[in-house]
Amino acid sequence: MSILGTSVTNVTATDADDPVYGNSAKLVYSILEGQPYFSIEPETAIIKTALPNMDREAKEEYLVVIQAKDMGGHSGGLSGTTTLTVTLTDVNDNPPKFAQSLYHFSVPEDVVLGTAIGRVKANDQDVGENAQSSYDIIDGDGTALFEITSDAQAQDGIIRLRKPLDFETKKSYTLKVEAANVHIDPRFSSRGPFKDTATVKIVVEDADEPPVFSSPTYLLEVHENAALNSVIGQVTARDPDITSSPIRFSIDRHTDLERQFNINADDGKITLATPLDRELSVWHNITIIATEIRNHSQISRVPVAIKVLDVNDNAPEFASEYEAFLCENGKPGQVNISMLLMMNMFVYNCLIFN
């Protein structure tokens, strides 16, 4: 892309004849091969471009045959030749172009976050840093769920998952991605824009998911005098898949070693299996398991906290036995002062001598 007349290099030929003897050593330079791309100054041997805007992407290397002829170039002069190899170096005069305008990818809904969904590539005819492009998602209904990063080695864009997918909520997404040159040469800005866009269609595939409880935790309350087999609460869960499977419930017995509770496998109702005593234990923490009947490997767990409520099932008790002394002639409602003094003296003596 150099302008017309840009200097490339110069060459020098030597003639062993005496330069002061006529024109025997007067050299004139010319190009035998290499037109119309290059020209040479006959006397200075400066080689210049003879065409403007030469394109490396069309032809990168040129062989130029140069002749030096003595006798001022006249007939009968002797000549010698040399071959010059001219290589065009790259400039950023080409924008990136996507290999295709539409990309299709499929991804299971249970794929791990950060997983690469697919790759897109914008080709650039330039080389080196002039071919480097950055990728971005500039539009679409999945901008919050997906991201694209640039692979500096392969010069392509990698689409990755940022947030979980749900086939039952949305089955496909459309993204508009852009590839833009990282290094822009302002001399060639008129040949831009140095970017390109493509559409990416992502189809979400259904995956067998475990049951989902209606709540992440459950808190139940039961009075300590509740009858055996009485229902103290219920948990619910569903299969989020379109082909919904029935759910069976069970108690993780590692969390209920004394088997104080049972659960109905079909409806999740929790019942009391053994009597409760709030004075012995106020809280019971168990774990409920939900299992798909059609696929026993699909299970979920949820913690259930059971609080035992108090009832009046204990009579009051005095801390110790008490003894009183009364005078036989005391009147109703009368406090026996002497007796109080005697008792106080007794306590005093105990304290002194003990």
Automatic annotation (TrEMBL):
Pfam families with a match to the protein in the record: Cadherin
CDD domains, alphabetized: Cadherin_repeat (cd11304)
GO cellular component terms listed in the entry, alphabetical order: adherens junction; axon terminus; catenin complex; synaptic cleft
Domain Cadherin: 5-98, 99-213, 214-318
Cellular localisation: Cell membrane
One annotated GO molecular function: beta-catenin binding
Annotated GO biological process: adherens junction organization; calcium-dependent cell-cell adhesion via plasma membrane cell adhesion molecules; cell migration; cell morphogenesis; cell-cell adhesion mediated by cadherin; cell-cell junction assembly; homophilic cell adhesion via plasma membrane adhesion molecules
Entry-linked InterPro entries: Cadherin, Cadherin-like_dom, Cadherin-like_sf, Cadherin_CS
Annotated keywords: Calcium, Cell adhesion, Cell membrane, Glycoprotein, Membrane, Metal-binding, Repeat, Signal, Transmembrane, Transmembrane helix
Principal location: membrane
Membrane topology field: Single-pass type I membrane protein
Protein name: Cadherin domain-containing protein
UniProt source species: Marmota monax (Woodchuck)
